[in-house]
Amino acid sequence: MKFLDLIKIRQSVRRYSSESVRKDKLERCLEAARLAPSASNSQPWTFLVVEDPAIKDKVAHLTFDKIVSFNKFVIEAPVLVVIIIEKPKLITRVGGFIKKIEYPKIDIGIAAAHFCLQAAEEGLGTCMLGWFSEKPIKQILKIPPTKKIGLIISVGYAPEDYRIREKSRKSLDQVVRYNAY
Ligand SMILES: Cc1cc2nc3c(=O)[nH]c(=O)nc-3n(C[C@H](O)[C@H](O)[C@H](O)COP(=O)(O)O)c2cc1C
After folding, report:
1. Residues near 95 by beta carbon (within 8 Å), at least 6 away in sequence
2. CATH class of 3-175
């Protein structure tokens, strides 16, 4: 598939069929994430794959509540990948402090994009989730309290009737400038 076409078919999938995800497909997504670039090549991430149905269900229920319910669909996803932000190299920490840029957050975003694009290539649907109850999820998954969860990605197959949506994006004119702001 042409790269731009892959980008166009990658979309947030918010309904999942009951079909389970083949391990080789998941592993290629993880490999794509592993190969992502990062500041000073720190690779400040751990990808925690949650596929045990009982554990996955507990985590899924912690991505929404009665008031903020938009992530209720996560229950349907057979796999969740929890991206934990790890401590980057000293040079990245010093550089980040001086420049006031949180490089690891940028890094995990890139890794997540790699993951989701490879998933699209594999015919899988994903949704990046930035809304979840971090503390109880860390307890369930035995993630040390000092560590931070950056993102969760739901993974599975979209139902057959799930259509590729037209992208809703600002125009190039709105977001691109040349030579000066
Ligand atoms: C950092 C981040 C956090 C997100 N959190 C959520 C979320 O908690 N729930 C959700 O349904 N979608 C979430 N999304 C998906 C965005 O809403 C989605 O990417 C955006 O609307 C564009 O749609 P598309 O992914 O279908 O192209 C998140 C995306 C990003 C990049």
Report:
1. 39, 40, 101, 103
2. alpha beta
Asked whether 129 lines ligand 1 (CB < 6 A), one says yes
Q: Which two tokens stand for residue 60?
A: 């899924």
Which residue's CA lies nearest to atom 10 of ligand 1?
Answer: 129
| pLDDT at position 103 | 98
Distance from the alpha carbon of residue 111 to the mean position of ligand 1, in angstroms: 15
Residue 109's SS3 state is helix
pLDDT tens digits, one per residue of 102-122: 999 999 999 999 999 999 999
Task: Say yes or no: CB of residue 50 within 6 Å of ligand 1.
Answer: no
| Residue 1 pLDDT > 90 | no
